[in-house]
């Protein structure tokens, strides 16, 4: 039986995950190191990344697929694994401890889709002035400023607009540097064909309640003039984890990665890649985006060519990051802005 993993975030406090800080259940973030955890705790941590709060767990069983038919057959993964090999979790910071049921799900779920910057380094301060932080009392996703009043992010980052504040001009998200602008969102618009099952059309537009002041710390990034070519080096940025299961950094991180061929992308994720996705990274692993980077920019030759979307693990060999192919959405972006 196929279970779909819900992809909405658990709600922590204003900051969660820094070294030694309190996390749900009375644990400390430093105890999340897999190397020091007993097996049960590792399973608990895994479940925390892929399942939303316990009140929604019952919705996992017997859900309908996008065509409206009950999925009751057994599904195998790319290597013939069990049903959990088909589970897709976007690069989202999902952290909740859900009890024994979730531990069972986690034990059977090695094929995870996460988000972060691994193998990169601190960006030069304010070198990515289009990068924004989406906040609902804490940073939960990234985004890109495309004009003074609109931000592009990932559809799987969706929250109601009244909950989202957009922080522009950030570098260290836990220090007031005097360069920041914080503006409430007035609209959050997912792509109408976004599919949370396949993560296709993973793009969202956010309208700011008032225009941002454009300056050296806040600048719009150009949309693609054409689709990016294989082999082009791009910059991926975000405040996501720098290693799997390690807390997020305070400062904006950057990594350089090449655009991979469509063939390599599809070979890494058989049956999972649509025409609206591109892969970037290194097949040998080591550099990637990770949890907390979702919705953030992939900038190639000064244009926004990708949005951090999903991937198996973080920087694993043969599993590059998968990104929304922004060049396919120029018309939708223009039409949506004009209508709103």
UniProtKB/TrEMBL annotation:
Residues 1-37 are annotated as: Disordered. Gene3D superfamilies: Trypsin-like serine proteases. Residues 117-338 form the Peptidase S1 domain. PROSITE patterns: TRYPSIN_DOM, TRYPSIN_HIS, TRYPSIN_SER. GO terms for cellular component: extracellular space. It is an enzyme of class 3 (hydrolase). This is trypsin.
């Amino acid at each position: 039986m196929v279970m779909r993993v819900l992809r909405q975030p658990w709600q922590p406090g204003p900051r969660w995950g820094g070294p030694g800080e309190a996390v749900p259940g009375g644990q400390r973030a430093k105890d999340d190191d897999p190397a020091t955890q007993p097996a049960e705790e590792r399973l608990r941590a895994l479940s925390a990344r892929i399942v939303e709060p316990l009140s929604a767990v019952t919705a996992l069983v017997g859900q309908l697929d996008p065509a409206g038919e009950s999925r009751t057959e057994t599904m195998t993964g790319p290597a013939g694994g069990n049903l959990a090999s088909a589970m897709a979790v976007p690069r989202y910071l999902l952290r909740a401890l859900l009890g024994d049921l979730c531990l069972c799900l986690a034990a059977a779920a090695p094929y995870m889709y996460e988000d972060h910057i691994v193998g990169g380094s601190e960006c030069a301060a304010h070198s990515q002035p289009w990068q924004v932080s989406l906040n609902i009392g804490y940073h939960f996703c990234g985004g890109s400023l495309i004009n003074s009043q609109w931000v592009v992010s990932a559809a799987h980052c969706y929250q109601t607009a009244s909950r989202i504040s957009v922080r522009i001009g950030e570098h260290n998200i836990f220090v007031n540097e005097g360069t920041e602008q914080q503006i409430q969102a007035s609209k959050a618009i997912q792509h109408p064909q976004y599919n949370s099952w396949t993560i296709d059309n993973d793009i969202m537009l956010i309208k700011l309640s008032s225009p941002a002041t454009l300056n050296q710390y806040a600048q719009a990034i150009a949309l693609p003039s054409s689709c990016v070519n294989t082999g082009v080096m791009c910059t991926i940025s975000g405040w996501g984890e720098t290693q799997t299961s390690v807390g997020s950094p305070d400062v904006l991180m950057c990594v350089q990665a090449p655009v991979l061929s469509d063939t390599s992308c599809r070979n890494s994720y058989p049956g999972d890649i649509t025409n609206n996705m591109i892969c970037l990274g290194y097949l040998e692993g080591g550099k990637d985006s990770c949890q907390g980077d979702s919705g953030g920019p992939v900038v190639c030759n000064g244009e926004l060519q990708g949005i951090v979307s999903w991937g198996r693990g973080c920087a694993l060999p043969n599993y590059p990051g998968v990104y929304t192919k922004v060049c396919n959405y120029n018309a939708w972006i223009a039409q949506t802005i004009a209508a709103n």
